[in-house]
């Protein structure tokens, strides 16, 4: 993707690095892997990120530039003819060896080669043996290959044997880029082999950080398909402003209890552009944003905004994932050995034992609490328990010493719970009835996307797990956490979970 980055920069040199990152992430999410794929990109794929004229300039360049046949690589032949694709690569050079080495040219036990040929999943032990072979081959060209070179080889391996090496969810859909855990394991193996060899270590200088006055951060647009749309046809800022004021007047008269009317639906839909413009502009306190858009924070419209922003019906996706994966996750946690920091293992065993009698809200509570303990994150960094009769003002008073990060307050047991979501020490949303913990978790996740918020560091792994495994927001690169990189812990867990399903 580095070549694509340079090409975009040459056509549009005025773009900031953060906007470049957003464009590259969008291209990856649309399936662009090589320069050849760019000719199939359409204007609608990226027009919400850059101006229409800039978009057309890019598309024109991509469609008019001929692809050099010499740059188009072919799939390599696998170990012992185990690959279902193409011919071997030849002509390894010092600089481009990751792209040209024959990844089939490694010593591999026969039973592993047979599995690769059949497109079967490797067991953890078989996978480790294969990785040792690949790393040994790489180290014939470079005693300590840097991460970018390992990345190229890992992508080739996954492309060659996707069923055997690709990161997958339990339903066998690709997880992220598909090669992240393989890359991490390969890099770990390289570091292990070189642990006592100081001569092979690379030293790199860190570039100074750019100024902090960036308008668009990668974490803002991460996972979004309609982050900042164009002004609707036939509308002006003035006409949309009038509709915003109408919504405020209606809320003053009716409140949130009578929000499910066609008139409010239409007005909220028409003013989505203005909502995003205000959220994406100069940061406002959430309390002030709520004053300007009171209906936005009503659960129904908060979830509709999320669906427009990401393309995902969060409540439906979360419930479906818990129905399909919830008990499997709990069975895995019950079987695995891990340090139970939050003392939730008894709850996990109880839910697994009573699986036919528990509902999905109970499963959801056990899954989230179990994952927080598994990832060594404190439960109160994300979820607090509140009195079932407490008002928003009382919750704000009781939690005034808590951080300003979003968190969920559960009032009652998981099944019949009411809930509130607190951001910047203010209750921004609450249940209108005892609708259970799943609805509360859905609202909490919407908060990070709708309001351009990063995951708090002390709960970021669990939040990314919910996002990727339960919600289905699964970009190839990036993260909503401060590191802006896909969590290795999450990828590793999901790979282990998939292996658990396949081998048990």
Automatic annotation (TrEMBL):
Protein name per its UniProtKB record: Uncharacterized protein
Chain segments carrying region Disordered: 71-101
Organism of origin: Strongylocentrotus purpuratus
